[in-house]
């Protein structure tokens, strides 16, 4: 549906987009995640023809968006956008939602029907006559969403739509996004810096860092097989280390990896002698009592608890096992005896929990 | 101070009795000034929109010049317009000197900078997100401008009221271009000047009060429209 | 909402269009209401005898006449009265603009008006010599007055005009207590008369004015007659004024100044009407202009002028020019100017 071909964008001396490639499929929810200020908004604005790229092309359903001076209105009207900063017009809610339909010349009855249905969908039935400026932030954003969707665009762009909202309103918006995608088949391209949101909603995620997509894949894949260490770190995997493949076993798949003084068994396609980066998801590391017996098929690493900290709703323990590894910890363990900083513990994890990637 | 009290009384009498000459002057004042305001608005609001939204060489300088012209002395406008509309002047063939239409033209010139400048100000103060939203929703160029103006309507209406006020209160241009001719180009401000020169102070005060009442009425009507 | 606003826009534009048409159409068919004018400046005549039908109804291509006159003459109300009668008789639309003498002469020189009515012989002469004007007729005259504080610190009461001015100059530059003179300081007829008086007294105004201005006693107002009188009143100073404005301001109580010098040929103030030269500006309304000027020098109008102002001020504001050749001739006025109708 949308083909993004080598897009560059420079603002004066500042190179924001440095060669963006992507192919967005019709009907999918595609989320761009990445740190702030690295190009997400700019890319969305270019996709929505609010900015022109410094170089590169974008094809929207086969139409080259930037060939002529101005994108033709009929192509333009097949896309719509909701911005991070909510902007409702200085009129009542009904007129706000109706405005796109008015632009397109719908009849009064059509407009009335459509807008009222939309108001029901977003849970603001009866709000039609209210002045839009009197709404709360979350309500305004719902109105903005309805306003953008009501003219049935093929693609809806959303630039960090829930960034300024509380969790309850965020959930409402997310529900609506899913609803519109399923109900109307609208292709959704949104940006967020909340990876969990990306994980919840997307069919595919594009990780954008430093003006480029580092990885585009389904959420599961990104989270289990991050493209490189930057991606890994961004998605919250603290356990990123460097090492060298020390040996490969005869089955061609397993081998050992040495990082500092630590040697672990991994499953990888890399060859003997390769310098690699690897990461282990904290959730896949189990913390045992230091006297635990070795478990078959798992790497066992002794170590000392360096710190215990909370991250979001989870507890993590950083353990020095030669390399400092972050492991997720259960409440039971945390509240159990002998679990304090300075204590010795044993870590275990399966070889296939270690994700080996190229050294950047 | 007597003049003011007498003036208030005289204003009352003139209004109640619908004094013919005062009615004539008042209607003419309204026609000329409302006309000038409307014409200037029709010219300036689109001009203001253009300048607000387009980058072009010298834009900042142009805006500075416009704002400087807020302080254009009315008598200077009158003098320049006289030179242009005079029989000997380049536009003398239009025969606009000493006519109401000429006065209206002078007032248009006078308030052009104000309405343009304040429109630019009003539109520049609009959130850029609003602008992006309008474009995103698929507005054609015409729809874009209409929506922007609608969104900035309060501030733009203020600009128009400002222009109206400047026009209705000015005397320098009206005297030089119109000549304060009884029954033809005499308006409230020029009549006040004349009566003051002659020494009829309370009448001047009375006419001044009438002028303010008119300004008040017009402003109130526009405000009600603004609130809707 | 969109439709509503387009309707509003349409109404606005329509109103603007209507306004333009209205004002464009305001070329005098509605005319002025001569009845119940609030501008009741000087007096109405006791008997308003309309001019006899010497100016018979004529058909004119443009039934209008544009006259530039001076503020002081217009302020008396005489012109509005005469014009009203003329308009009733002939249907001509007379449009009068009252400005400073200098401005009126400029308008005439540029051909912006058809006729000027002023009171500054010297500049009128130049105007005619220039080729800007032709066919001058004198229709009335009166006298300037030197007014000042009742206390008369310089003691000029009853003196001859130039003597009075010399006395003020002498005492003023000495620094005598309370002796001040306020001058119009603009291009008005009154200021012209002041300059002429100084000239007769032997002082070249151009030479002396820069000196006097620096001294305390001589103040240049740069404003109209009313403003000048007010200033003189405030400062307890002397000033030269036309009789009409003085009587009005004094009568209303706006100022309290005494008439100290009101006799003397030097104070004479002669009103002339001059046509803008049709050879220079062929488009001027010459025919109508001539009829108006001829109207001014008819017996009927001259009679009206004679009694104008009496009911309001107890004395007339003007003297008719007719029959006053001996008074006016010393100022260069010819008999033709007083009584010969224009062809």
Describe the overall structure.
The complex is a heterotrimer of chains A (360), B (228) and C (343). Chain A has ten helices and 20 strands. Chain A is of the alpha+beta class and 360 residues long. Chain A has a six-stranded mixed beta sheet, sandwiched between helices. A five-stranded antiparallel beta sheet of chain A has the order 13-12-11-14-20. In chain A, α3 crosses α4. Chain B has a single domain (2-226), classed as MetI-like (MetI-like fold, Orthogonal Bundle). The termini of chain B are far apart. Chain C has two domains: 54-142 and 269-339, D-Maltodextrin-Binding Protein, domain 2, CATH 3.40.190.10; 143-267, D-Maltodextrin-Binding Protein, domain 2, CATH 3.40.190.10. In chain C, strands 1, 2, 3, 4, 5, 6, 7, 8, 9 and 10 form a ten-stranded mixed beta sheet that branches. Chains in contact: A-B, B-C. At the B-C interface, α2, α5 and α10 of B face α1, β2, α9 and α10 of C.
Labels describing this entry:
heterotrimer; A: 360 residues; alpha+beta; five-stranded antiparallel beta sheet; elongated; B: 228 residues; mainly alpha; MetI-like fold; 78% helix; globular
What are the SSEs and their pairings?
The complex is a heterotrimer of chains A (about 350), B (about 230) and C (about 350).
Chain A: E1 2-11, E2 14-24, E3 29-33, H1 40-47, E4 55-60, E5 63-64, H2 73-76, E6 79-82, H3 93-103, H4 108-121, H5 137-149, E7 155-159, H6 167-184, E8 187-192, H7 195-201, E9 204-209, E10 212-217, H8 219-224, H9 229-234, E11 240-248, E12 254-259, E13 262-267, E14 275-280, E15 286-289, E16 299-311, E17 314-320, E18 324-329, H10 331-335, E19 344-349, E20 354-358
Parallel strand pairs in A: 3-8, 3-9, 6-7, 7-8
Antiparallel strand pairs in A: 1-2, 1-4, 4-5, 9-10, 11-12, 11-14, 12-13, 14-20, 15-19, 16-17, 16-19, 17-18
Helix pairs in contact in A: 3-4, 3-5, 5-6
Chain B: H1 2-16, H2 20-53, H3 59-68, H4 74-85, H5 100-124, H6 128-136, H7 141-151, H8 153-169, H9 172-178, H10 188-198, H11 201-227
Helix pairs in contact in B: 1-11, 2-5, 2-8, 3-5, 4-5, 4-9, 5-8, 5-9, 8-11, 10-11
Chain C: H1 2-25, E1 64-70, H2 71-75, H3 78-90, E2 93-99, H4 101-110, E3 115-118, H5 121-129, E4 133-148, H6 161-174, E5 181-183, H7 189-200, H8 205-214, E6 218-220, H9 225-235, E7 238-242, H10 243-252, E8 258-261, E9 268-276, H11 286-296, H12 299-307, H13 310-313, E10 319-320, H14 325-329, H15 335-339
Parallel strand pairs in C: 1-2, 1-3, 5-6, 5-7
Antiparallel strand pairs in C: 3-9, 4-7, 4-8, 4-9, 4-10
């Amino acid at each position: 549906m949308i083909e993004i071909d080598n897009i560059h964008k420079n603002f004066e001396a500042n190179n924001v987009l440095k060669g963006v490639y992507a192919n967005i499929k019709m009907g999918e929810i595609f989320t761009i995640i990445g740190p702030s200020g690295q190009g997400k908004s700019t890319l969305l604005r270019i996709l929505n023809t609010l900015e022109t790229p410094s170089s590169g092309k974008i094809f929207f359903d086969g139409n080259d968006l930037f060939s002529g001076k101005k994108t033709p209105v009929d192509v333009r009207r097949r896309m719509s956008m909701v911005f991070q900063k909510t902007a409702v017009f200085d009129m009542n809610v009904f007129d706000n939602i109706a405005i796109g339909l008015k632009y397109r010349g719908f009849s009064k009855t059509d407009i009335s029907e459509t807008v009222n249905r939309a108001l029901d969908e977003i849970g603001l039935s009866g709000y039609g006559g209210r002045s839009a400026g009197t709404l709360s932030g979350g309500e305004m954003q719902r109105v903005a969403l309805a306003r953008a969707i009501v003219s049935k665009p093929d693609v809806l762009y959303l630039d960090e739509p829930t960034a300024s909202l509380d969790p309850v309103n965020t959930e409402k918006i997310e529900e609506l996004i899913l609803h519109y995608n399923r109900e109307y088949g609208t292709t959704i391209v949104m940006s967020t810096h909340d990876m969990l949101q990306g994980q919840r909603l997307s069919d595919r995620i594009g990780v954008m860092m430093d003006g480029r997509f580092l990885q585009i894949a389904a959420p599961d894949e990104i989270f289990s097989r991050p493209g490189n260490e930057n991606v890994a770190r961004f998605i919250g995997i603290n356990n990123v280390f460097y090492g060298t493949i020390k040996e490969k076993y005869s089955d061609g798949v397993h081998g050992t990896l040495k990082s500092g003084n630590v040697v672990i068994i991994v499953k990888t396609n890399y060859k003997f002698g390769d310098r690699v980066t690897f990461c282990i998801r904290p959730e896949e590391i189990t913390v045992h009592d230091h006297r635990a017996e070795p478990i078959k098929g798992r790497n066992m690493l002794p170590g000392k608890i360096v710190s215990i900290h909370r991250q979001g709703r989870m507890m993590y323990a950083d353990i020095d096992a030669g390399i400092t590894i972050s492991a997720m910890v259960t409440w039971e363990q945390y509240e159990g005896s002998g679990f304090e900083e300075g204590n010795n513990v044993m870590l275990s994890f399966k070889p296939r929990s270690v994700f080996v990637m190229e050294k950047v | 101070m007597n003049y003011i009290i007498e003036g208030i009384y005289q204003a009352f009498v003139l209004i109640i009795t619908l004094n013919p000459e005062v009615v004539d002057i008042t209607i003419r004042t309204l026609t000329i000034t409302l006309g000038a305001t409307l014409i200037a608005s029709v010219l300036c609001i689109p001009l203001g929109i253009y300048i607000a939204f387009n980058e072009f060489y010298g834009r900042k300088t142009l805006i500075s010049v416009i704002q400087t012209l807020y302080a254009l002395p009315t008598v200077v406008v009158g003098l320049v317009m006289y030179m242009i509309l005079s029989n000997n002047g380049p536009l003398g063939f239009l025969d606009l000197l000493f006519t109401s239409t000429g006065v209206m033209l002078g007032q248009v010139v006078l308030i052009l900078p104000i309405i343009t400048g304040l429109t630019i100000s009003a539109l520049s103060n609009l959130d850029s997100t609003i602008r992006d939203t309008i474009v995103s929703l698929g507005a054609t160029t015409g729809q874009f401008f209409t929506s922007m103006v609608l969104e900035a309507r309060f501030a733009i209406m203020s600009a128009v009221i400002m222009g109206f006020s400047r026009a209705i209160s000015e005397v320098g241009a009206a005297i030089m271009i119109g000549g304060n001719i009884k029954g033809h180009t005499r308006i409230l401000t020029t009549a006040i000047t004349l009566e003051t020169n002659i020494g009829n102070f309370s009448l001047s005060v009375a006419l001044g009060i009438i002028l303010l009442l008119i300004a008040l009425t017009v402003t109130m009507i526009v405000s009600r429209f603004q609130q809707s | 909402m969109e439709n509503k606003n387009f309707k509003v826009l349409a109404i606005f534009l329509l109103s603007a269009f209507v306004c333009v048409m209205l004002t464009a159409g305001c070329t005098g068919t509605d005319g002025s209401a001569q009845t119940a004018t609030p501008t009741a400046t000087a007096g109405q005549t006791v008997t308003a005898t309309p001019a006899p039908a010497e100016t018979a109804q004529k058909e004119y291509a443009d039934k209008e006449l544009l006259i530039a006159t001076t503020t002081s003459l217009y302020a008396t109300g005489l012109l509005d009265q005469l014009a009203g009668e003329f308009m009733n008789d002939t249907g001509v639309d007379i449009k009068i603009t009252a400005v400073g003498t200098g401005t009126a002469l400029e308008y005439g020189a540029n051909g912006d008006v058809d006729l000027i009515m002023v009171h500054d012989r010297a500049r009128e002469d130049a105007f005619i010599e220039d080729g800007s004007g032709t066919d001058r007729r004198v229709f009335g005259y009166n006298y300037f007055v030197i007014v000042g504080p009742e206390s008369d610190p310089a003691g000029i009461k009853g003196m001859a005009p130039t003597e009075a001015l010399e006395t003020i100059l002498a005492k003023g530059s000495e620094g005598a207590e309370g002796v001040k003179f306020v001058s119009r300081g603009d291009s008005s007829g009154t200021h012209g008369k002041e300059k002429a008086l100084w000239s007769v007294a032997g002082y070249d105004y151009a030479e002396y004015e820069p000196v006097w201005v620096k001294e305390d006693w001589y103040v240049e107002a740069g404003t109209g007659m009313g403003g000048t009188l007010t200033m003189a009143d405030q400062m307890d100073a002397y000033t030269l004024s036309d009789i009409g404005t003085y009587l009005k301001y004094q009568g209303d109580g706006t100022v309290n100044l005494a008439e100290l010098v009101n006799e003397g040929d030097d104070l004479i103030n002669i009103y002339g009407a001059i046509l803008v030269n049709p050879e220079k500006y062929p488009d001027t309304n010459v025919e109508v202009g001539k009829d108006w000027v001829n109207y001014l020098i008819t017996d009927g109008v001259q009679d009206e002028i004679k009694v104008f102002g009496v009911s309001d001020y107890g004395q007339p504001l003007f003297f008719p020019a007719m029959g006053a050749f001996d008074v006016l001739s010393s100022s260069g006025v010819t008999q033709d100017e007083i009584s010969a109708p224009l062809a």
